[in-house]
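debug: dumping io for the single-chain case to check the tokenizer round-trip. Nothing else runs in this session.
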Amino acid sequence: MPLELLRTMMQTAAPGVTLQSCTHALVQQGPGAWFRGMVPTLLRDVPFSAIYWLGYETAKSRVRVPPAWGASSGLRNAVESFVSGAGAGMFAAVVTTPVDVIKTIRQHHVQGVHGGGTTSYATILRTLRDSPAVAFAGLGPRLVRIPVGMATMMAALEHTKRSFEQRRQRRG
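debug: decoded output
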């Protein structure tokens, strides 16, 4: 959590704010501040993982690259994994973006860096109720970063798994 908080602080900071000033502000506030935003982070990450894996496994069972498109089954498998990972990542990112926004707002105001205290959940929820579009702030960059990352990870994972299976078959 402290590293996630530092990352969020740096991303939302004014131009003159440094990593050192963010770290100093957290140290001054004590360990209680280091876990600010933990609840929304868990409320984002646990559903994200569940939605992602369900979507990935569903897509992986349905996405098929025709043999004519690629000579090797390994390449077809990599493309299927990449497409399935990207699609599942995109869907999970869209669904969990409002909770990510809540986490970011909660972590944004840190005493000694941005001034003021932490924004309360009631205030955040009121803001989202009054301006629903705020719940999807940052969705564009999130839809670039997450699907590409998840697609790359799954293609690499499936390739590695396939390599180990082939090696095991040759030995056995």
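debug: round-trip ok. The chain is about 75% helix and 0% strand.
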